[in-house]
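lol ok so funny story. i was supposed to be doing the assay writeup but got distracted and ended up predicting the structure for this chain instead. priorities right. anyway since i did it might as well share w the group, maybe its usefull for someone
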Amino acid sequence: MNKLIKITLLFSLCCFYAKPGNAQIENAGELIRGGVGDAQILINEYLRPLGNGFGADLNNGWYYTAKTHKFLGFDLTVSASAATAPSSDETFDVSTLGLQFMRPQDPNNTIAPTIVGDDVAGPLLDLVLQNPLTRQDEVVSTLQLPKGTGINYVPAPMIQASVGLPLNTDFILRFFPETEFEKDVGSVKMLGFGVKHSLNQWIPGGSNFPLDLAVLAGVTTLQTQADLDVAPDQTAIPSGASYDNQKVKVEANAFTFNLLASKKLAIFTLFGGIGIETSSLDLNLTGTYPATSIETNLASPNFGKTIIDDLEDPVALSFTGPNKMRASIGLRLDFYLLSAYASYTMADYPGVTLGAAVHLR
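and the output, tada:
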């Protein structure tokens, strides 16, 4: 059960694997040892597909029909989506990033996996700093870029309920209360709202129109956080600081607006939609983190030696998903008050959604 929770809810920390995924995030966090500037660039490239994929997931699963409920009719839906990253987002080239202090150890090995890339270690990077005594560049530490997960899709679950209001309008609620899991997993909470409004009522003779038509708008916010454990370089002179306050905090936001159409045929309903989507994901590393450096203070007894330079709240990244068109098509199967459905979304990060619902009126 814990593995399922980690896979489906704490996407930012577990990266589709339980503790191994958390270790990958920590490995990415260890890039802080090379300094904030280079670490920001590398972590941004490594995690970018996660932000894009989860933003796409949050915009899926809003509907399985264009038909709205009768007044006070309702449904409760459980679904799971998986957005697939394009192959171009599975790797990045370290040599093109303009890093200041980190250099590929092997100039012929510069291609690194992103978080959705292959489950193989990335290239080794040397942290090169100038020694103030010799005025020569020195390799003071070597870091290895983290592995990918070996999974090129980003999964996400969704629980939502909707109720029929006047004027053939449905109000949709997505909600997951703040829940604390074990320490290496962290906490998660989610809130989302949506409105679906029938267009048939505004079309002359719309009640006899062969298709149900509607518009839908929805917005979702998800927040999660967990502890990290990025340790200092053991070959450097320690600062004596404590690193037990390290956390990774993530907030994902998504919005979509769609024109829907559906057609019921016996126990089957064919449905689809076309619209726009936007998403963003903010990731912050908070707390105290150890960076490897060379002491440049002439008055220090450690002048010219490799030391630990502590950084506070060093990383604040924002990922903005593509603001583009999306189109979905799906099929629903009814069993009295129960339904099962599947849909496919065509977008920059195409996705599949599977769901089940109980509904009335």
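The first strand starts at residue 74 and ends at 84. Residues 1-22 have pLDDT under 50 and may be disordered.
back to the writeup now i swear
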